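[audit] Reproducing an earlier prediction to check determinism. Same input, same settings, fresh worker. If the tokens differ from the archived copy the diff job will pick it up downstream; this log only records the rerun itself.
[audit] input (333 residues):
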Amino acid sequence: MLPWFQNKFPIFLAPMAGVTDRIFRGLCKELGADVVTTEFVSAEGIFRRNERTLHYLDFDEAERPVGVQLFGGDPAHMGEAARMVIDWKRPDFIDLNFGCPVNKVVSKNGGSALLRDCPLLEKVARGVVEAVAPFPVTAKIRIGWDGDSINATTTAKILEDAGIRAVAVHGRTKEQGYSGAADWDVIAEVAQAVKIPVIGNGDLTSAADVKHRRDTTRIAGVMLGRGAMSSPWIFREIKHFLATGELLPPPPLAEKWAFIRRHARLAVERSGAESPTMHSLRARLMAYSRGLPDAKRLREKFSQVSTLGDLDAIAGESIGSENVEVEKEAVAI
């Protein structure tokens, strides 16, 4: 069994394109995330040594255990790309993306496209497992392509037989995307059907949600995506609740702002280019606004942020100028 499952119920940060970069993964680890995974990476890009693709493979030692998630539909290229990643970066595991619903990925026979082609899914999984053995390989799936083809239990069994060491199950179909409710009955069926660890994913937005799913299914861990985007301190809240049964109060507004500003500052320091970085962070700031007062007005302001000074000014308006400490690094959350 993978070490992070041994006598533990690990909390995973879901891999999310454009979200789970080195900065955000590191911050979530500080807050209690047990396992993180890179944004998904094209196996073809790695195979061709595409410079932009290789950038997504970078991680910091403090992130461990960390996995690199690959997508693609060519078993040989997927296997070779996995070997290359291991040789170059030595992550703790390789994760295979069989769940992404985005059409530009699906149209290239990647992500959830393979949920409609179980023979190819099996070839990809087995090809990667055999290419990197005994290095651990995990996978992420959805419950099916659409409501008429729910096949997560079958898919998980195929992956288990192919040598996959753990499987994360998102409780929606490809057709649903991120709309509607996650079907935790199907996730529970998968956890009952296979012997490898099953990680439940979907509609986990509070510590109480996680405890309920842990107590009512046989899942071995949970994976948080959108809930962590807007409230990354949820990892700390979950850990505390599972350990003590006590719900922590939400972080004070000033601490939330200190965290948001720290995220932006670290991103700018990493890139060395303030304006382009702040432009790229606008979507991330929009996600944070969901947990802040007067969120609609904040989103309007975030849509025009171009500098760290802009962000500090917005923070000052939100919590009072006297509470804004621009250089604050030691954040409790």
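[audit] rerun output stored. Observation attached for the diff report: The chain has two domains: 3-244, 253-323.
[audit] end
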